[in-house]
Every structure is written in structure tokens, then in C-alpha cells.
Write a structure and sequence with these properties.
The relative contact order is 0.30. 38% of the residues lie in helices and 34% in strands. The longest helix is centred in the N-terminal third of the chain and has 17 residues, at 15-31. It is α+β, with helices and mostly antiparallel strands. It is globular and about 40 Å long.
Length: 92
């Protein structure tokens, strides 16, 4: 089990749209096998995702869901900087 912390720094005017899009897919993501948490928040021009996944296979399947690939395509030009992915293993 691991936690993913995603940081997106967005161009002016796109943080609200990004937050809105992620909150729209959140109910579907939470129903996915292996998803323990999918929390979205915003601070200024940054949007943060905090996710818990049971395995790499579950995360890989999540990234291929049609609603996620559609979101990634829609938002690809909205980012001011590279998206930052941090991964933390859950201590046992």
C-alpha cells in the first residue's frame, strides 16, 4: 500500500477548472478496485491530490480509466510547471 501526493501548478485561471474536473471524477475513482483514498484540494494556483492505492497494478488501471485519460488530455496545456508525483510507502 502506498500514498501518492500529486502537485499541479497551473497557469492563471486554470486551478478552478482543474479542481472542478478532479472533483467530478472523484466518486468514480473512489469506486475503483484498490483505491483507499482520493482527496483533492487547492491552494492558490496549485491543486493537490492525495491518493492511497493497494498496488502498482491498481494505480496503473486507474491511470487508464477513460475518465482519467480524458481529463489528462483536456488539461495537458493548463500546467505552468511539470506535475510532481511523490510516492510514500505505508509503514507496516
Amino acid at each position: 500500500m502506498f500514498i501518492i501526493h500529486v502537485t499541479m501548478t497551473l497557469k492563471d485561471g486554470y486551478a478552478d477548472k482543474t479542481l472542478e474536473g478532479l472533483l467530478k471524477v472523484r466518486p468514480d475513482v473512489l469506486k475503483e478496485d484498490g483505491c483507499g483514498e482520493y482527496t483533492i484540494t487547492r491552494l492558490g494556483d496549485q491543486v493537490f491530490c492525495f491518493e492511497i492505492w493497494e498496488s502498482d497494478a491498481h494505480l496503473d488501471a486507474h491511470m487508464k480509466q477513460p475518465y482519467m485519460t480524458e481529463f489528462f488530455e483536456m488539461t495537458k496545456d493548463w500546467h505552468k510547471d511539470d506535475v510532481i508525483f511523490n510516492r510514500y510507502e505505508v509503514a507496516k
